[in-house]
Amino acid sequence: xxxxxxxxxxxxxxxxxxxxxxxxxxxxxxxxxxxxxxxxxxxxxxxxxxxxxxxxxxxxxxxxxxxxxxxxxxxxxxxxxxxxxxxxxxxxxxxxxxxxxxxxxxxxxxxxxxxxxxxxxxxxxxxxxxxxxxxxxxxxxxxxxxxxxxxxxxxxxxxxxxxxxxxxxxxxxxxxxxxxxxxxxxxxxxxxxxxxxxxxxxxxxxxxxxxxxxxxxxxxxxxxxxxxxxxxxxxxxxxxxxxxxxxxxxxxxxxxxxxxxxxxxxxxxxxxxxxxxxxxxxxxxxxxxxxxxxxxxxxxxxxxxxxxxxxxxxxxxxxxxxxxxxxxxxxxxxxxxxxxxxxxxxxxxxxxxxxxxxxxxxxxxxxxxxxxxxxxxxxxxxxxxxxxxxxxxxxxxxxxxxxxxxxxxxxxxxxxxxxxxxxxxxxxxxxxxxxxxxxxxxxxxxxxxxxxxxxxxxxxxxxxxxxxxxxxxxxxxxxxxxxxxxxxxxxxxxxxxxxxxxxxxxxxxxxxxxxxxxxxxxxxxxxxxxxxxxxxxxxx
Length: 540
Description:
By secondary structure, this protein is of the alpha+beta class. The chain folds into 2 domains: 7-29 and 53-269, Immunoglobulin-like, CATH 2.60.40.1730; 370-466 and 468-521, Neutral Protease Domain 2 (Neutral Protease, domain 2, Orthogonal Bundle), CATH 1.10.390.10. It has helices at 302-313, 349-357, 374-392, 396-414, 429-445, 447-460, 468-479, 484-492, 516-520, and strands at residues 17-19, 48-49, 84-96, 101-112, 119-122, 127-134, 137-138, 140-144, 147-151, 158-168, 187-190, 196-199, 219-228, 232-235, 238-245, 248-259, 266-269, 271-277, 283-289, 321-326, 331-332, 337-341, 365-367, 464-466, 526-528.
């Protein structure tokens, strides 16, 4: 997500502050739990498909990469259900622009993480569900309060195939943010000209498909997108085919690496496409509105941006890259197909670099909890700063100094980057504070060790999720440094640490070591209920 420009006041979503532990209690294989209860703790097991009756043949090899260790979020606990580990979404979507209507058939292959009498997915009640089937058998269901509950007993580590037919006019939901570019809400966004795009960080995918809408659950995707020609549907991954029949155009897309739901994009418009390639041979496509520049702004800089990032971070982690330019103001690092608003700022080279950097930091390795979004944004911001300093012929220290002048105000307004105000998602505090922190770490451990960290972490965590506990312990192992107090100061102090003296005292008479428990895990971060969902009673 591109860094914010102008804050917008008075649109935050209120909720009740909670403190949620991320680990659950163990259940035996025959124990059932209510819907929404936290599943067993520990590592994710290998998925084995089942027929819903207890048999468990070997899993298809291509689904293994999508097995996730799902969890309840500490900041937005109402999004997602840790009982569900989505493995593959097959989304067949038809958009009728004359009616602003979406008709869809979804096939979800998922693993149950515990025994339960049924499952729950996030889905907007603005849509109407026509039918649900599990493993080929019709299932009873209910859609209310943005929850689709399905009565079908599931067993831990079995996989199931869920088919849902639904339709309607998708409606965005309010964003827990004061950013101007979130003013239109989250999820499926329909413009005045009936073109569409999506924006769903930290949630909102549920406005247009039934989903486990949480970053800890990454899945594979296939899309079949149909609309009136000459319009085209664009999505993540590789465009595997385009056909036209009876005035309708259908495109198919295949995403070969698992993605979190907030990183999924779908857009319908009258597009033109420009084919490019990086110096390393990665195919790049720019999808832009048919009337206008085929490479709006500086989107044509993508090949050079990729080459610059590959020098620092290693090979681009996916097979293809693209940019889809849409009629809104924000920029989003949607996996393999970045979504950019058609404005001078969001199509600038700096934003292209920022969103491309997220393909390593945020996409191939994804935060397992929204309290750790700083892991993505701080690193992408630092890399953007390196690029901007190089382009301007100044040192990174000068660039960091310019950011430091405003960081204290960002931190005071929205909270420290590792414990931000849940009603101010995406504020500058998660960008600039961590960027300053990375520069301090670089000066502490030296360039060789620092750039090795930047390069090695995405490679070590390819197609995975991680939280701060894993990340910071990994950094300590790699560097041989004890950094608990250092990270505690930068991530959790309400005031900006002294940049030359972090890790012992933050300049306010406070020893950073007191933050060690919060740095080690997210359980001390206050959480807010974003959608005020009531618990669902168990169904048999």
